[in-house]
Specification:
Low-confidence stretches: none
Distance between the termini: 15 Å
CATH architecture of the largest domain: 3-Layer(aba) Sandwich
Oligomer: single chain
Order of helices and strands: EHEHEHEHEHHEHEEHEHEHEEH
Number of strands: 12
Strand order of the largest sheet: 8-7-6-9-10-11-12
CATH topology of the largest domain: Rossmann fold
CATH superfamily of the largest domain: NAD(P)-binding Rossmann-like Domain
CATH class of the largest domain: Alpha Beta
Bound molecules: 1,4-dihydronicotinamide adenine dinucleotide
Mean pLDDT: 97
Largest sheet: 7 strands, parallel
Length: 332
């Protein structure tokens, strides 16, 4: 049970979910109050969440301004793995714990990355569109090369990168990876070679991005990097949109520096309707849905609610993104 029945957990942007029944059930059963808000902006959060002890957020940016305005707030829990919507240094300075759900949807995102790879490199979407227009021919698919024996480069060899690795090995790819933060001891049992980004770009037939969005990875793949790739290569991104420069990607796809791309994430979401990437035949795009299955969304809701109850029971979350906040945490 939570320490005080007056504790309040506010879900800031519940309009982004089908319902919040699971979160409400778990939090109220633990003895705290639960409120579902439908904020669209920072100002909405500041106006409507003043008495929150814990905020639960899907996509709303939790900025320094929000944290300074919400004097009671002790924790921010993000629905998901990525915490790029939360200003973590600001939270730490303000004495607020940040939590996420780092251990769900690994299979889902890896499956989506493989689906995008197959859709674009096996030309599934291109041919599907042509068949529906009355064209029954395999010629527009040319050229397609055999996957077995090709080199697949993974950028970011964490949980999802490794889940994707297993699928890639099953297809017969030789796997290389770029990840400057991986301990080579953790690669025991993986048939993967760690290489520089330069080598990965120049030698891969397929590149799949699985990094978080950080100041270091923002724009990691721009014009210079795309120009290093093989003209027959494909780029898959299920990490975060701003890791790839969209303008440079358009030029690369239009001018044939690379053969194609598959994206689940874009620089701006949703994209502008006149984004030129949407006009190309050699790109397949899905709407940032890679984490989705019924099972994964159930799991993330349970774990978000557990995080909130953990904060209100023990003073810190179950999955703690900024443990360095410990000495200056806001007091109950
Ligand atoms: P993780 O933390 O297990 O792995 C991330 C890996 O990226 C780590 O090994 C880390 O060392 C590496 N990395 C960090 N900075 C790097 C850099 N500059 N260059 C190369 N590698 C770098 O995280 P996980 O679970 O594998 O998730 C990865 C990302 O996938 C998340 O941060 C999130 O942005 C994205 N994601 C996307 C989803 C979607 O719906 N499209 C759903 C879930 C996650």
């Amino acid at each position: 049970m939570v320490k005080d029945s007056m504790f309040k957990v506010i879900m800031t942007d519940s309009q982004r979910l089908e319902n919040v029944d699971i979160e409400r059930e778990i939090i109220e059963r633990a003895g705290a109050k639960f409120v579902a808000e439908t904020c669209e902006t920072e100002d909405d959060v500041i106006a409507r969440c003043q008495d929150a002890d814990v905020l639960l957020c899907v996509g709303i940016p939790t900025t320094r301004r929000v944290m300074e305005a919400l004097k009671k707030c002790r924790a921010i829990v993000r629905y998901g793995i990525g915490v790029d919507t939360v200003d973590i240094p600001a939270a730490t300075e303000a004495g607020i714990c940040v939590a996420n759900v780092p251990d769900f949807c690994w299979d889902e995102v890896a499956d989506t990355a493989m689906s995008l790879l197959l859709a674009v490199a096996r030309k599934v979407v291109l041919l599907n569109n042509l068949v529906k227009k009355g064209v029954w021919s395999r010629l527009p698919a040319k050229p397609i090369y055999k996957f077995r024996g090709q080199t697949l480069g993974i950028i970011g060899f964490g949980h999802i990168g490794r889940a994707f690795y297993k699928r890639a090995i099953a297809f017969g790819f030789k796997v290389i990876a770029y990840d400057p933060y991986v301990f080579k001891e953790s690669l025991h049992g993986y048939a993967v070679e760690l290489v520089s980004l330069d080598q990965l770009l120049r030698t891969s037939d397929i590149i799949s991005i699985h990094t978080p969005l950080t100041p270091e990875t923002r724009g990691l793949i721009g014009e210079a990097e795309l120009r290093k790739m093989k003209p027959t290569a494909y780029l898959i991104n299920t990490g975060r949109g701003p890791v790839v420069n969209g303008k440079a990607l358009y030029k690369a796809l239009k001018e044939g520096w690379i053969a194609g791309a598959g994206l689940d994430v874009m620089e701006k979401e949703p994209p502008d309707p006149n984004d030129p990437l949407l006009t190309l035949d050699n790109i397949v795009i899905t709407p940032h849905y890679a984490s989705y299955t019924e099972e994964a969304y159930h799991e993330v809701k349970v774990k978000v609610a557990e995080n909130a109850v953990h904060v209100l029971t023990y003073g810190y979350p179950k999955y703690w993104v900024n443990p360095e906040v410990k000495p200056k945490m806001r007091k109950f």
